[in-house]
Write a structure and sequence with these properties.
This protein is of the alpha/beta class and 330 residues long. The chain folds into 2 domains: 230 residues, Metallo-beta-lactamase, Chain A; 74 residues, no CATH class. Helices cover 29% and strands 20% of the residues. α8 runs parallel beside α9. The longest helix has 36 residues. The protein is globular, with a radius of gyration of 25 Å.
Length: 330
């Protein structure tokens, strides 16, 4: 089996000509993020040295812009009546810089999204672990108008329009090409007080307030409803286990000793200890980490997996964080 991780919990698994995708996500573009030298995007956002844009916004030395508010030389300069090099040069430089930053960011983001779409659309089937927005938000956009079948539980299915759905539940077993897939009941990671406080009092909220409100709204819309799936994929004598969140259900008898386990490392201030209990229960031979990335700030933050990786090695279990786009042999 060949495995590629892209972001959050998104995985692409291939064997021969058969491709499976899990929780495909394109990533949310950060809104209101700061650009080079403290600049922001285009429309009326703050520029260096306290200047602002053109239409009536504040100019250097306290003057105001167009629309006849001030007939001084500073106002005439904002309206293009003053041809001094400073006023003309500042406007040209800032306009050029804003346009270039905006175009480069848009081009980079658009190019990345198109590459991910192309990769995800190779899938013969798509499997959903649960219904949070970072697991299903882009599924309709990617697979609308295709024949790709989306396997999911009932709650996420309510948000997945214009795609081909097949409802599954814990206990579902099916075969696709060389793959045998078994679904088990699982649980979502329980956010603790430490991670909640870290999110609420994160200074990045000052730079991403609108983005944070958007993420909170998406979290409200996309609920998991207690429907979390744990997948085991068997192929040519190898067993791969995929967790959609950093937790498990205590009452489920999971198979142990898989060749590899994909473990999301996100959502707890005590992540090393919390995740280690999963390793001790499932006893995988090898661990690959995903969901540790900072995909949608300020709700997420970069996670340092080094402590957990060291703890796993002390138990004799190889553990490494995956790199986006790299191919791994299972």
């Amino acid at each position: 089996m060949k495995l590629i991780w892209t972001n959050t919990a998104s995985l692409v698994i291939k064997e021969g000509k058969t491709v499976l995708t899990f929780d495909p996500f394109l990533g949310l573009p950060p809104r209101g993020t700061r650009g080079p030298q403290g600049t922001r995007g285009v429309r009326g956002r703050k520029s260096p040295q306290g200047t602002r844009g053109v239409r009536g916004r504040k100019s250097p030395q306290g003057g105001r812009g167009a629309q006849g508010r001030n007939s001084t030389q500073r106002a005439r300069g904002a309206q293009g009546r003053n041809s001094t090099q400073r006023a003309r040069g500042a406007r040209v430089r800032m306009s050029t810089q804003r346009t270039r930053c905006s175009q480069e960011a848009s081009s980079t983001q658009a190019g990345k999204r198109q590459r991910l779409k192309k990769l995800y659309r190779m899938a013969d089937a798509v499997f959903i672990t649960h219904g949070h927005f970072d697991h299903i938000y882009h599924v309709p956009e990617i697979y609308r108008g295709t024949n790709t079948c989306i396997y999911t539980t009932r709650t996420p299915a309510r948000r997945l329009k214009a795609v081909q759905l097949k409802l599954i539940r814990p206990g579902t077993a099916l075969s696709l090409g060389p793959f045998e897939i078994q679904a088990y009941q699982s649980r979502h990671c329980r956010f603790d007080t430490g991670i909640i406080l870290k999110t609420v009092f994160n200074k990045r909220l000052l730079y991403h307030p609108i983005h944070m409100l958007r993420l909170l709204y998406l979290n409200h819309l996309y609920q998991e409803g207690g429907e979390i799936l744990f997948y085991e994929i068997r192929c040519k004598g190898k067993r791969l286990q995929i967790l959609g969140s950093m937790n498990y259900h205590e009452d489920v008898d999971y198979p142990t000793g898989a060749d590899c386990m994909i473990l999301p490392l996100q959502g707890r201030s005590d992540q090393d200890e919390y995740a280690l209990r999963i390793v001790k229960k499932l006893k995988p031979q090898r661990i690959l980490l995903d969901h540790y990335d900072d995909s949608f700030p300020p709700m997420t933050s970069p996670v340092d997996p080094s402590g957990f990786e060291n703890n796993c090695r002390m138990l004799g279990v190889p553990c490494r964080r995956m790199v986006s786009g790299r191919v791994y042999d299972i």
